[in-house]
Amino acid sequence: MNLLLSFYSSLLALLACNSKMATIASPLETSEPSCIQRRIDSIKQQPVWNPPAEVHEYEYNGKKVYLFSANCCDQFNTLMDANCNYVCAPSGGFTGKGDRKCNDFYDTAKHLRLVWKDERVRK
Hints:
Blueprint: H1 2-17, H2 34-44, E1 54-60, E2 63-68, E3 76-81, E4 86-92, H3 105-108, E5 110-117
Antiparallel strand pairs: 1-2, 1-5, 2-3, 3-4
């Protein structure tokens, strides 16, 4: 399990260093679909995840999609469309390779921005 946590931490650090990464946009610049915001609000009602929750916006197959990080090890990172329909899990799970329904995601998707990151301090 420690190996998987180390893997996820390394993956998140790599993504954060990616030159395509954008900063968090202010609410005036852009707004999320209401169902995406409701999912974020729901996460905020839970104890802080380890690692902390993040939501990223991408363009994938010509559509805006939202990648939700998993709240712990061995769980899928979930990709949702703008209507909160499940698209796939591009990463996470026991193998780290998600559900294998969108193996091309990280090669073809364009990162648009970090929508939200839980900045609460874990107690």
